[in-house]
Design a protein that fits this description.
Number of helices: 6
Bound molecules: acetamide
Low-confidence stretches: none
Largest sheet: 6 strands, mixed
Distance between the termini: 37 Å
Order of helices and strands: EHEHHEEEHEEHEHEEEEEEEE
Mean pLDDT: 98
Number of strands: 16
Structural class: alpha/beta
Strand order of the largest sheet: 5-4-3-2-1-14
Length: 263
């Protein structure tokens, strides 16, 4: 299976231009599964619900989903992309899965980061698993990485590849993802953006370093902090079905939920 990401410098509010950047990049991509950043079409730094009302889109009916559906059909690929979702009066930080036959999965970010809490409603789950050509693909978004329960939940549900649209600003995630991959014995594909959102007196820099990690904790590829990059790797998702750590240890079967005090 060929999995990858398109790391680029999203321009706030320039939906047409950002969609065109994706269409151009993916025209070159020989991939089965591509991950795009969180909020890849709108930018990240919303300063009011009014802005969100203008830029957020319904799932699956909006223009962003239509454009991604066209690309996925033409390229015969599946795309996992973060977007600002409007559902009635509520806004969600969401990720959609779009296959060659159109939108086929939705996830609303459960762990909202910092000022996202001012504008967005938290998702209530579940963390989704989507079948992509016989491979179980899970989805989480950016700050979900900080809560190992998210990736663990996806692994327990059978995820072989965890897709992770991101807009990272804190420095730690690119180092943490190989550990998320190792502790769950899965592949992870984190797609971050680069560049800066400047909105009035607010400014956020994004750290790039999109990363693909393997079930043994290896880094398959880590992008630069500041360059746009389309990257695709050949992986064997069957590797993620083997949870053995030693002859007598299994990453999932050896868990002791009877001992953990997780509530
Ligand atoms: C983040 O969750 N966008 C940091």
């Amino acid at each position: 299976m060929r999995v990858g990401f398109w790391q680029f410098d999203v321009e706030f509010g320039q939906v047409e231009r950002n969609l065109a950047r994706v269409a151009d990049a993916l025209a070159e991509a020989d991939a089965d599964l591509i991950v795009l950043p969180e909020f890849f079409a709108t930018g990240y730094l919303f300063t009011s619900r009014g802005e969100l009302a203008e830029l957020a889109e319904p799932y699956p009916g909006g223009r962003t989903m239509r454009t991604l559906s066209q690309i996925a059909a033409e390229r015969e690929m599946t795309i996992v992309a973060g977007f600002a979702e409007r559902d009635g009066d509520a806004f969600y930080n969401s990720a959609a899965v779009i296959g060659p036959d159109g939108p086929c999965g939705l996830y609303r970010k459960v762990h909202l980061f910092n000022d996202e809490k001012l504008h967005f409603s938290p998702g209530g789950g579940p963390l989704p698993i989507i079948d992509v050509a016989g491979v179980k693909v899970g989805v989480m978004i950016c700050f979900d990485w900080y809560f190992p329960e998210a990736a663990r939940t996806l692994a327990i549900k059978g995820a072989q590849v965890i897709c992770h649209p991101s807009n990272l600003v804190l420095p730690w995630c690119p180092d943490a993802m190989p550990i998320r991959a190792l502790e769950n014995r899965v592949f992870t594909v984190t797609c971050n953006r680069i560049g800066v959102d400047i909105r009035g007196d607010k400014r956020l820099s994004f750290i790039g370093q999109s990363i693909i990690a393997g079930p043994d904790g290896r880094t398959i590829h880590r992008a630069s902090p500041d360059q746009a990059e389309l990257f695709v790797a050949d992986i064997d998702p069957a590797e993620a079905l083997d949870k053995a750590i030693t002859r007598r240890n299994d990453a999932l079967a050896d868990r002791r939920p009877d001992v953990y005090e997780l509530r």
